[in-house]
């Protein structure tokens, strides 16, 4: 597949079922996410629902972000020990938690999530989208990566104060780059 496929010994990874993709697809998604992140050049990034951390590892190697925090709640399918073994020798910051997000308001320049929100019901997604909005700085970014068939879930994030900057589809997966509207401007409009 690529040098990154070999360099991280990806054959040692187990797929994370919630994501529903293969190891090769995770690596491809990681490269595509990395290309978006490089253009924005954020200093502090949050990965929501990192699963087996293969996308994490790909983003870490490709972008060299100063601060990348990855969050997940690991279970019997894959343990936090396995994930830490995958990342051995790498600079990583894992937090075993998801929602409510355990961070201060406006903590991150960018957050992204790969194949997490399509597993949530609408009411819960609305609340989670608002939670994501809270931890992203004004004019910060969120990258939503989900199956194209559920592309309408972007509306939950629009309602939470994001506007779409870019949208594209790759092999049935959409990548939506959204910018958080400055809350000071938003307040003066209403």
Automatic annotation (TrEMBL):
Lineage, uppermost ranks: Archaea, Thermoproteota, Thermoprotei, Sulfolobales, Sulfolobaceae
Regions crossing the membrane: none
Chain ranges of the Methyltransferase type domain: 46-144
Keyword terms, alphabetized: Methyltransferase, Transferase
Origin species: Acidianus ambivalens (Desulfurolobus ambivalens)
A Pfam family: Methyltransf_11
GO biological process per UniProt: methylation
Superkingdom as given in the UniProt entry: Archaea
Stated name of the protein: Methyltransferase domain-containing protein
GO function term, MF aspect, one: S-adenosylmethionine-dependent methyltransferase activity
């Amino acid at each position: 597949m690529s040098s990154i496929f070999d360099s991280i010994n990806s054959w040692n990874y187990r797929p994370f079922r919630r994501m529903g993709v293969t190891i090769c697809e995770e690596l491809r998604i990681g490269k595509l996410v990395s290309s978006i992140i490089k253009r924005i050049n954020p200093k502090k990034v949050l990965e929501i629902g990192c699963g087996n951390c293969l996308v994490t590892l790909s983003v870490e190697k490709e972008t060299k972000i100063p601060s990348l925090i990855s969050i997940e709640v690991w279970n019997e399918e894959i343990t936090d020990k396995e994930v830490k073994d995958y990342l051995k020798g790498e600079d990583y910051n894992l937090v075993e938690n998801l929602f409510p997000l355990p961070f201060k308001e406006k903590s991150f320049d960018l957050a992204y999530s790969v194949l997490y929100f399509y597993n949530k019901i609408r009411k819960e997604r609305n609340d989670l989208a608002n939670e994501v909005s809270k931890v992203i700085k004004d004019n910060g970014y969120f990258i939503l990566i989900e199956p194209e068939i559920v592309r309408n879930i972007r509306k939950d994030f629009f309602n939470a104060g994001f506007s779409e900057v870019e949208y594209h589809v790759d092999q049935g997966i959409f990548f939506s780059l959204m910018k958080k509207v400055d809350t000071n401007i938003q307040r003066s409009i209403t």
